Amino acid sequence: MLKKIRICLFVCFSLIFSLLVVADEHDSAPTQVSLLYRIQPGDVLNISVWGEETMQYKELRVLPDGTLSYPLTGVIEVKGKTIGEVSQLIAEKLKVFIPEPNVNVMVHAAEGNLAYVIGKVTKSGPISLLQDTTVLQALSLSGPFDKFADKSAIKIIRLHGGQQELIKFDYDEVSKGDNLNSNIFLKPGDTIVVP
């Protein structure tokens, strides 16, 4: 009986250890994003050229102006481009030095595509926009409203061409199925204010 208990404990500990190792590996893995994902300032990229050991660069951060420096290409504009477009752009510039370069670009961390929720919610702070996210979805990620929150006076502040735009959002209306046009898709840099 004691032998069976020891075997059972050994199997349980082995399973727990393997799950912890898998979780640890998952935390350090690149962010899984769609091929249609548009790169933003603040994102972190891994870029490599197949067969070129000296062209393997990890964790290159996109600068606030939307550019990135990569060897032999100089400064390149990557903001708003997909992973495929950036790969193609780098490959074109490298053709002068490397015949038929095979460039691989991966998003290590999508830190540039953030919106923010502030005010009377349980969890205020940044929200990653790894996929199309509406105001209602962002609010659901922020936890329940504070009991004093004015859900009918929520505002979205959006930077648009150097100007700030104010968009009104009435949670009570939208949750009833009314005024669904106000449940817009968020853009990087949007701030939802819950008064």
Automatic annotation (TrEMBL):
InterPro entries: Poly_export (IPR049712), Poly_export_N (IPR003715). Residues 37-107 form the Polysaccharide export protein N-terminal domain. It holds the Pfam family Poly_export. The keyword Protein biosynthesis does not apply. Keywords: Signal. Residues 1-23 form the signal peptide. PANTHER family: POLYSACCHARIDE EXPORT PROTEIN GFCE-RELATED (PTHR33619:SF3). This is Polysaccharide biosynthesis/export family protein. It comes from Methylophilus aquaticus.
